[in-house]
Every structure is written in structure tokens, then in C-alpha cells.
Amino acid sequence: MIKVFLLDDHEVVRRGLRELLEVEDDLEVVGESGSAQEATRRIPALRPHVMILDARLPDGSGIDVCRDVRSVDPSVAGIVLTSFDDDEALRSAVLAGAAGYLLKDIRGSRLVDSIRRVASGESLLDDAVVSRLRAQWGHDVDDPRLTALSPQERRILQHIAEGLTNRQIGEALGLAEKTVKNYVTSVLAKLGMERRTQAAVYMASKERRGERQH
User: Which residues form a coiled coil (predicted)?
Assistant: First the structure.
């Protein structure tokens, strides 16, 4: 049985998706939410095989939910379901580790098929699309460690690479020094590193690779 979680801020959409999926013998909706924060909290506990995520929500983004959940449990596959077809959102979805990026005008039968495919480990992202993203944005798509970082954590990492202290980072980002310290701890843990100097060296080598590509 493939377990699915639904995230969409429109109750009618969630109800329609639930009715579409639950007539299938091999699909079960184990939870739903209209809130990004609630979904981020509930999904890891429910452990669905697939999460269907609305890209834009009142309190955040389904793309952020995908990244945050997969940083805790990478076995959960994410499909971003959106009304908006733009490269920036697609890039964000790829970096968040989403297995699919689908428009809401998709036929029901194709959505059901897509859920089955990502549950079996497939990616719905076209190779040509991912290649284009690699060409435009460098190595980020290829480094799974970076996909686990939130936008704020990426900013923290960049400042670490510039040699700033926690206090200086806090002043640059308008954060308390203790908050920055917590962010640094999280960044190092997600990168699998123990010291900020390791992170700085990693970013420097990454930038050198990027320069060689151009």
C-alpha cells in the first residue's frame, strides 16, 4: 500500500485529491493539511511514501516542506503540484529534492501514475530540464548536502566562507548571536562537518569548480 500525504490550503482541492486517490486499491491518504508548518511537523511522524505539496501556501511553501521533511527522512518522495510554471520555482523544487513538479491541470490518471512511479523510486523530472538547471546554476543540483539547507542556512554558510564571526553574521542578517550559533551548528550537521573551517574550505573549492566551468 502506497501511503500519501496531501498539502494544499484549499479544502476543496484536498477533498478532490483524496477522492481521486482512495478509489485506487494500492493508494491510501494517511494525512492532509492546509498549513506548511503543520505539514512539516506531521509528515515525518506519519511516514508517507509520497507527499503531494502545493507550491504556494499562506504560511510558506510546499517546496520548503519538501526540503525540510527530506532532510529528516529522505525516503519520503515529494511531488510539487502547482498552478505556476516558472523556472525559479522548478529550480527550488529540484534543490529541495522533489521527485516531481507537476501543474494542477494534470489529468487524474496521470497524477495517480506519477505517485506510483515516485513511490517506486523514479524521478518525474525530465533529464533535459535538470541538465538545463545544472548549466544555469552550477553544482547545487548535484550536491545532496546543499539541498538540505534552508535559504537562511545557505546565507549563513556563505558568510562562514567569507570568514565572518557569529557576531558579524548576526549583524549582517539582523539575528541574535545565539541564533546564529544555532544556525551554524545546524549547517555543519547537515554538511557532515565538525568545524566551520571545513565549511569554508568546502565553499572555496566549490567556487573554484564553478569558475573552471565558466
Answer: none
- Cβ–Cβ < 8 Å for 55, 86: no
CB 195 within 8 A of CB 188: yes
Instruction: With beta carbons less than 8 A apart as the criterion, state whether 7 and 18 touch.
Output: no
Q: In whole angstroms, give the CA distance from residue 15 to residue 13.
A: 5
- Which of 33-42, 79-88, 122-131 is the least confident region? 122-131
Q: What is the pLDDT of residue 128?
A: 56
pTM: predicted TM-score of the whole model, two decimal places: 0.64
CATH 3.40.50.300 fits 2-134, yes or no: no
- What are the DSSP calls for 59-90, one per residue? TEEHHHHHHHHHHH-TTSEEEEEES---HHHH
How long is the chain? 214
Domain segments of the chain as ranges: 2-134, 144-207
Query: 177-191 and 151-161 are packed helices; what angle lies between their axes, rounded to 10 degrees?
Result: 90
